[in-house]
Amino acid sequence: MSEIIVGIDLGTTNSEVAIVENGISRVLVGDDGDPILPSFVGLDSEGKLLVGKAAKNAWVLAPERTIKSIKRKMGLDVKVALGEREFRPQEISALILKALKDRAEKSLGKEVKKAVITVPAYFNDVQRQATVEAGELAGLEVVRILNEPTAATLVYDPQQKERTRILVYDLGGGTFDVSVVQIENGIVEVLSSHGDTQLGGDDFDDILLNKICDQFLAEHGLDLREVRTSKARVLRAAEEAKRRLSDFVETQIEEEFVGEKDGVPLHLKMELSRSEYEEWLKPLIDRTMDCVQRALEDAKLTARDIDRVVLVGGSTRTPIISKLLESRLGRSPHREINPDLCVAMGAAVQGAIIAGQPIDSILVDITPHTLGIRVLDRSDSFSFFGGRNSESVHRFAPIIRRGTPLPSSRSEMYATASDEQEAVEIDIYQGEYSDVRQNHRVGKFRIEGLSKVPSGNPIVVQFDLNLNGMLKVTAKEKITDLQKNIVIDSVFSDISSDQHKESKRRLSELWTDELENSYRNPMSLAPSGMGDETENSPEGMGASDDDFVIRSDDYKAIPDSAATANDEFLSLVNQANEVISKAERLKAKASAEDHDEITKQVSELRSLLEAQNYADIPARISKLADMLFYIDDA
Ligand code: AMP
User: Fold this and answer.
1) Can you say how many angstroms the Cα of residue 2 is from the centroid of all Cα atoms in its chain?
2) Distance (Å, rounded) from C-alpha 527 to C-alpha 48?
């Protein structure tokens, strides 16, 4: 058996470790089942070292005892304080690498001595050397420092022989990189690389933080940015809301006791919509698109020369990014491999190649077809009702795109076409063509009893697709919350064998320019004669009063019941214990009244922990942390 060489993505926000086994690259999970280790290092209240999720959680309560984004300082001659002591950046990175090494050893049941570690393509020698040193401090021999974009291409094309040019768009937490990579005869070369070391998902969080705090200031006269723990809480809530907005068109932020003014506790409650959020982001995304252009120019290539576009980094889940890349480069990006994990997986592929292991393609569970609904639309202007028998009634609006990893939940917003429209028909299709007649209908239902309002009544359509191909489709009238849903048991096996063959034939054409373009210019490029109306939709699909159209307007957000916080109980228990010990320590300093209240809160929190009532614990932790904060400051 060949030796073990793990692949490590040492990221600004998150890090991962992967291994190739039996030709398959696999990211290793921690005790909590999560493959992602947050790149946070901190100390708990007793001075015990915390790395990863525990440190990230502690950061909310004690930002002064936590270090994040250390990668930004790699190679600099600086020291960072952790508690009473100071450390060099590579020493902090070594703690993260050691946690990954331990994770790998526990998972594999063997000692791990060697690693391939990835760095951004723009890292200079000093930064690379600092990374090697961090590895050595963690007890790892760094057999190769690999460029992140190269790793990302290896995971998609481990054995590519023909010349292929790949544009890797990598937007992580703290940095942005775009690289043009060429693979030929198994040799991978970075032709050009551009980026912005100060642009990433953290900036998206800051934008949201500022919008939220500005609005809160206007409403309550308190600037939450000026209160350290309040700011940390809002920032965390903003980051969670940002993630939800990648999948859902609207969400809500709620933080109880987030601040206090004149002795009165204040609560934060705010609604956000994806469209307004993406509007705020637009200047930052435009900056990344300028870098894409420069990377192409430096490689002396045009968009046409690019064979694939690959997304890397958690922030690329923001839907506007794929849309803009698709419109600029004329092809939709690959997203089959989890963008958070593909660099680590590629590093493991490199490790396996060095160790002499055979490599297969990487297998993942993805949707083989795009799923969406029929809408009314004219290709040029997103206009309203296009007229009976007009081509505009046949537009396919994708909701979950082909290649999306499963399970997946996505929502999009549409609007009614006519005044006082009382019903809409949700016609669900799978396929790759913008002309819905070319695709396969998998189900339909009506939602009736809509409000008698002018056209443009917003309807939210949500698709929830599980690993077994079970699709739940929910349609909701936004202004009333009236909703209806259906569940389609097995959306992928619903194609008859003939249609299946036809779909396979069509799928084999995927990634050709025609198909890519057909999304962007649906009316002009949809091939004629492939599948007809009667085959796919016996009732025909002429426009009716039940049709509705895509609307590009902005909407006011409503609560997002589908989006739930994803706190695991272990981190909750850690947080709860931390806040309880802080309470025990500080309550002596509190007024008699506060002392009693804190004692009561602590005992209730303990009861919730004993009863394993995890749903109610976060609110209780927040409340207690908030009370303690004021004592702390007093
Ligand atoms: P990375 O450094 O590649 O691990 O990327 C981490 C960044 O991705 C952080 O800023 C996360 O907030 C962001 N991120 C993770 N998941 C999502 C998501 N679903 N939508 C938008 N951003 C995300």
Assistant:
1) 35
2) 64
DSSP-derived 3-state class of residue 553 = coil
Of the residues 148, 202, 250, 278, which is catalytic? 148
The verdict on whether 239 is a catalytic residue reads: no
Question: Which pair of tokens denotes residue 334?
Answer: 């690959």
**Which tokens hold the place of 358?**
């055979």
How far is residue 194's CA from residue 364's CA, in Å, rounded to a whole number? 29
Quote the CA–CA distance of 311 and 148 in Å, as a whole number: 12
**At 310, which helix (H) or strand (E)?**
strand 308-312
Cα distances (angstroms) measured from residue 561 to each of 248, 462, 541: 10, 12, 33
> What is the reported pLDDT for 387?
35
Question: What is the sign of the dihedral through the CA atoms of 282, 283, 288 and 289?
Answer: positive
170 noted as active-site residue:
yes
Tell whether ligand 1 has an atom less than 6 A from the beta carbon of residue 195. no
Among 9, 242, 278, 345, residue to substitute to test ligand 1 (most atoms within 8 Å of Cβ) = 242
Beta carbons of 261 and 228 less than 8 angstroms apart: no
Q: Does residue 12 line the site of ligand 1, with CB under 6 A?
A: yes
**Catalytic residue of the set 34, 91, 170, 203:** 170
Q: Cis (ω within 30 of 0) for the bond into 527?
A: no
Per-residue pLDDT at 366 = 65
Cβ of residue 210 lying under 6 Å from some atom of ligand 1 = no
pLDDT at 52: 96
Model pLDDT, residue 70? 94
Q: Give nearest CA residue, ligand 1 atom 22.
A: 315
Identify which of 37, 243, 280, 345 to mutate to test ligand 1's pocket (most ligand atoms within 8 A of the CB).
Answer: 243
Give the H/E segment covering residue 122: none
Place of tokens 């998972």: 107
Task: Tell me what pLDDT residue 401 has.
Answer: 85
pTM over 0.85: no
Cα 470–Cα 438–Cα 467 angle in degrees, nearest 5: 15
- The residue type at 523: M
Phi, psi of 253 (to 5 degrees): -110, 130
How would DSSP label each residue in 196-239? ETT-SHHHHHHHHHHHHHHHHHHHHS--GGGSHHHHHHHHHHHH
**Residue 578: what pLDDT?**
72
Burial-class residue 468 by CB neighbours within 10 Å (0-12, 13-18, 19+).
Answer: middle
Closest Cα to atom 6 of ligand 1:
173
Predicted local confidence at residue 22, as pLDDT: 80
Local mean pLDDT, 10-residue blocks, the chain (634 residues): 90 93 87 94 91 90 87 92 90 97 96 95 84 95 91 79 89 88 79 85 95 97 92 93 95 94 94 96 95 93 94 94 92 85 93 82 63 71 34 78 79 88 91 84 90 90 82 92 86 48 40 33 23 32 40 25 34 72 79 84 82 73 74 50
Terminus-to-terminus CA distance in the chain, angstroms? 63
pLDDT (0 to 100) of residue 504: 39
Q: Whose CA is nearest to atom 19 of ligand 1?
A: 243
pLDDT for 360: 53
Would you say 25 and 363 are in contact if contact means Cβ atoms under 8 Å apart?
A: no
323 tagged catalytic: no
Q: What's the rounded Cα separation, in Å, for the pair 147 and 446?
A: 51
71 is catalytic: yes
Residue 72, number of CB atoms within 10 A of its CB: 16
